[in-house]
Structures are given as C-alpha cells and as structure tokens.
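hey so i finally got around to running both of the ones u sent me last week. sorry it took forever, my laptop kept dying halfway thru and i had to restart like 3 times lol. anyway pasting them below in the order u listed, first the sequence line then the structure token line for each. didnt double check formatting much so if smth looks off just lmk and ill redo it

first one:
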Amino acid sequence: MRLLSNEEVATVLDWPSVIEELRKLYQEVGSGISVSTPRTDLHHPGPPSPDGSPTAHYLKAMGGGFVGGGVAALRLSSDRVRFVSNPSGLRRVKDPVRPGRWLGLILLFDLHTGELVAVLPDGVIQRMRVGATNALADDYLARPEIETVAVFGSGDQAEAHLQALASVRSFDRVRVWSPTPEHRGRFAARMQERLERPVEAADTPEAAVAGADLLMTATNSRQGFVPVAWIRPGLHLSTLQRDELTPAAIQAVDRLVVHTQLWEVNATSAGLPWVEGRLLRDHPESASVAWEGYPTLGDLVAGRAPGRQRGEEVTAFVNNIGLGAQFAAVAGLAWRRCRELGLGRELDPEWFLQAMHP
C-alpha cells in the first residue's frame, strides 16, 4: 500500500498514456462493464469570508471502477466556496482550507482483494482526467484539420485541456480570453512556450472566437455566456462544465454529446446562503436541457453513437459532471507506474483493516 504525492504522480503520467487509458475505460463504460455512482454534493453554510461575503462548505464524493485496470476509486473533496461577480457574470471560487492548501483525496482499491492499495491527492489527477476526457471527446467530434483554437479561461483546467488537445490534434494558433488581462497575458506566454506555436491574449471574447475551429471553455462561470452568434458551420465546442453554454447555443448544435446521463445528488442545508438571487451551491441554476436525451462519451467510444459525420456540422461535448471511474483509471495508472519505480511512501495496510465485520 502506498501514499503518493502530486509530485510523484506528475512524474509518471503523460498526456498520451492518460488519454489512451481513458479510451479503454470509456469502451467499458459504454458497454456497461465499468460503472460509477452519481456524485454526491453536501452543502452547508460557512462563516463569512474576511471581506464579509457569504461562504459555503462543499463535501463531495464520487466512486467508480475500471474493470480493465483491476481497481475502484473513491474521490473525496472538502472545499470552502464563495461566489464572485465580475463583468462576465457569476463565478465560483474555492478558497484554501489552509493558506495555499486545498483538500482532495483519492482512495484506490483492488477489485480482486478489496484492499486499499493507495492514498493520493487529487490535484494532478483531477486536472489530467478532465483535460484528457475532453480531448478524447474532441478526437471523435472535432474536424481533422484545425487551424485556430479559442480558449475561454486562463487557469489550470484551461492549460490542461489545451495540452491534452495537442496530443490528439495539430493546430496552428491559440487565442485566449479571460476577464483579467494579466491572467490571460501570463497564460498566453506560458502556453506559447510549452506548445511551441503562437498563443495570443485576445482583448475581447469576440476577438478570441472569431474564425475559430474549436472553442474550448474552461471557466468557473455559473451562468451561460456562449451565445448562438459565435457558432458557425464546422465549429466544435468543448466545455469543461455544464453552465457555460446558453440554451440558444445548445439548440444551435447539430451533434451534442454529454459526458454522462447521471446527475449529482444534492443534499443542501436550509441555512445555505443566497448570492444575487442564487443559492450558494455548486450548480445554482437548473440545467436548460435534459442530458438524458443525448448520447454519452461512453456511447461514442464504444461505437454505440456516431462522431462527426460532416465537415460543416456543429458539434459539442459538454462535460456535465465527472465520473468516479475516471479517478480509478488515471489513479490506477499512476499507482502501477509508481509501484514499478518504487515511488511513494509504503504504509502498513493493517492500519486500515479491522478484526470486526463492519
């Protein structure tokens, strides 16, 4: 049994390997072999932040297995959260539980013995499983030839998705927009060096999306901001969460694929505060569409639903909610590689076992 760090996980994982591991997983998901439970979101009121704004505590749990990898995983996160308004709308901010420190854990179990085989933080795996999942969907839905990628968001998830995309598609240039000029400027400089191709910080959202072949959204927005006016024939939209497309934009898509038809289970305290007319929970607004009516990424990878059929089709992938099976696949890959290299701290499994039947 091993205790792993983010640094050790980052050492052994690479984008092509993670994408292919997830491709194997989604073949099983699409066939009903590997399964996940719905995510559970537990919301309670928190103390006011230093500036006096309301806060909440989110405790989230999600579990799933990967039969091909021989593992199952339980991912837990404990977050202090608040809403912030800016010119582009309402967004969610996760405050650290201690200065500069956040809390997210993955417990990895052996499907054959039932033993707990690894405990690791979710930071690196969280970013890679989301970015690689979207890139996998992009591989089935985006046109083969891409010249310009528009990116909305300049945080870690935008960076991860862009790096993952570079593993499945070549593209000539990137234009990025986010509300803070300094953030998007630093992001553009950093990603231009990593991708070795032009990455430009756009002055306006419209300038970022003009003529783009793929529109990538990686924001904390809790309001739809992609209008139908930005959609043109052949465009592929790839969103990292479900609150970014407006209802009109969704209706303008010819072929839409969602991550899963599962919905999270919300348990919300009656004392949870409201901010600007919205309850301070993870997704304050009801989804504008019924995700149950759309094919999933598992359907796509397993060949149960078609990918892009025509060059001029408008396609979209909405990563509407995560799956615990993703953590099983990516954490399982990291654990196996760390074990082969002798990385991590060995723990006595007896600490986690008991002589009493639970």
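and the second one:
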Amino acid sequence: MEKVVRNKSEIIKSIREKKGFICDMDGVIYHGEILLPGVREFVEWLKDSDKAFLFLTNSSERSPLELRQRLQRMGLDVPEEHFYTSALATAKFLSQQSPGCTAYIVGAAGLQNAFYDVGISHNDVDPDYVVIGETRSYNYDTIVRATTHVFNGAKLIATNPDTTGPSEEGIVPACKAYVAPIEIATKREAYYVGKPNPLMMRTGLRMLGVHSEDAVMMGDRMDTDIIAGIETGIDTVLVLSGVTQRRELKLFPYSPTYILRGVGEIVRYSYRQATE
C-alpha cells in the first residue's frame, strides 16, 4: 500500500534515504532517443550521493555497452556495470537450466550476443528452445518457424511479458505481443524471464549489494516494475512519465509505495533543501 505521508517533501526524503536504486529505462529515463526531463540531474545526483544504482530493463534489444552508448548520445555517461537486461537474464537462465542447449532466437543483437556469450548457439533446424525478444525483423515467416519448432518439441521462452512500450511515436507493441501468435497457434504458454519474474529482481539486488529494505524500484509500469518490487519486498516508485497513468491505478489490486511525475522530482527537492 502507498505509505501515509504528510506532503511531497516527505515522500522525496524517504526515497532519497535509500541506499540502492533499481530503475527501469523506457518511460523512466527516456522515450526512444529522447531523454526525459530531470533525468540528467537525477543520474548526477545518484553519482554525487554515492548511491548504488542499476538500470534494470525488460528490453532485450541492446547490450549493456549499447545502452551505455545510447545514453552517451543523450549526454549521459554511465558505465556498463550499471545495466542489466532481460536478454542477459534469459541467457543466464537457459545456460543454468540446460547447459549446451541450442535455441531458435528471435531478437535483436543484444539478445543474440547474450546467448553467444554463454555458449548457446542459434539453431533453426531442431532447437531445444524457441526464444522470443523484441526485434524489428519480426514477420510471418518468423511466426511460422517458431510455431513449427514448438510443435516439434522446443520449449517456448520469452525475454519479458511487456505487451507494449513507450517510444517517440507513442505506445508500440513489445515482447508479449510478439509471443502471442505463437502461444495461440501452439496452445503453449511461454515462460517469461524478465520483470516481474523474481529471478531478475534478485539478480539486481545482488548486483547492487544492498538489502531489500534499503532499496527502491523505480518504474513506469504497474504490471511489471511495481509488482516486481512488491513481490521482491522492496519499496516502489511509480513514475507517471511512461506507460501507466494515475487514472489507471484503480485497475490494479496493488499499489506503489510512492508516486512521482518523474525522477526529476527527486533532484528538485534536493536542490530546494540545499538552498533553504
């Protein structure tokens, strides 16, 4: 439940006292190639305040290096160790579940490279798994090949359960929308590795090196980010700069701990306090 506080300053103060910050990216840090207001100042505050922070994204398209370079183009320099993606989580999961397996991989370079790095090769003949992530090359042939492999016994895995995501053009289809035709055709449900799967959240906490009570999850989606934080036992911050809007909160049987318009509010409060 959302905590009872007297005013926005008390909310911000409670958030700023956390030692570790797990932040989603799309809808929190940027929309497509557009940096959101206050993000630059927020990231600098994290660094200057010596906070442990991790950008934990359900997007599987880009590697940590590519994500770093993407932020550099927007004027932010964040080292690679501060990024963890659903592609990395999915590759780690399959390498532990079935060492030496093969997969028919539908996804961008970030997903392909994550599997290569853990020794899982692409197989379009008789794969053990069909793995679906976000990609711009998704088409009818992709659906047919993936469906055929699942019918022939391959297990269906998806990098994340996001149905949509924010972009410069508005809301666009995401991973679960790509998986849906394959699930419908085969009558098999995919296993989704990304948020809110606790596998990814526990990895994030280990990377931060903080206890759950000292961490906060910041995201724009009630159905992945916020529920992931709740089920991991950490405080949550819903930012209204992405997919979920305030009017939609009544649709969910759970609530974020705090609600902000965007991450920039944390810095604006910090600045006011420093000048008072």
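quick thing i noticed on the 2nd:
Residues 86-97 form the longest helix (12 residues).
anyway thats it, ttyl
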